[in-house]
Amino acid sequence: MNPSETPKRRPPRNYFSRREQVRLFLLAGSLMLTFILIYQAAQPETWRKLFGGEMTPPIAEEKIDTRVPRKAVEDRPMEGAFRVVPPTPFTMNRSDAKVEAGKAPLAAESLAAIQDDSVFRKAEYGAWREIFSALQKTPLDSLTPAHAEPVQFAQLFRQPDDYRGKLVAISGVIKRVVKVDASKEDLGVDHLWQIWLFSGADANPTVIYSLELPDQFPTGLKVSERATVVGVFFKRWVYKGEGGIFTAPLMLSKSVAWSPPPKYQAMSTTQLVIGVSISVVAALVIATLIFRKSNDAESTAEKMIRDRQAEKFREEAGEIDSGVSVRDQLKVVAAQLEQQANDSESDEQDA
To answer: Where are the bilayer-spanning segments (predicted)?
Structure first.
């Protein structure tokens, strides 16, 4: 390049043009994508979805007030274990009864003794023992969700008379499983499992007393396992909780329909750092490619306009009158001045 020639300067960007706006939009989008990838890579749930694990589906919330107004009750509300009462004569003579779909495992007289919105009563113990006796004699294959009527918390809570003594199935998240004492003489077992299942809002539990639990099922006051319980609806039970006295549907079951979640290997700190680093590098590479492509790309519309302008210039170039150049005008002026100088010298010599 000739040193006297100055290099061509690139014209400033026109940020109001469509091309520049698209370029800025792509750059901003790639930056947002980078931050999103970094955030998602830092979440353990993301790696659980990729490498295994079961996510708990959301539970539809329904606000139902289960608090019991202040009133006289027959007994003091119990929190937790069933109150063992003296055995009553077993007069129903239904020792061979089993639980069947759509049919109560006990007689109407026993069902009539069950009272809603109350704690456990002595008069209800015969029905309690009779239902558990029928559940023990019923094979688990006959106590599956396919053999029971699916229900929700609201149905049992608002229509206890319609479901009392019937085989129902309720699904939700079990959040509490504790062992409670039982009478081995009457029930054949020395303990029951008290299960708190939430199928609606977190404040509305369904309480289940179960004869057994599946293998490896977690127990304690802090459990979070999605499962289905098939059992016999007993009553709307009164219990004491934080903030007052509440009522909840109460069911009796033989077991819980549950499958252990697939095992996944917990990620180490090194694996997490590597995953985040790979996500960041990938996001930066994508952003760089988009930047280069948007910087060098030329929109089709701009190219068409430029070609049309160049063609129009070539067509009209022959009609343009360039006139006398500045150099030629200076030569004429210089010649005139030189002529005037010569004329002045001639006049002086003649004088």
So the answer is: 21-42, 272-291
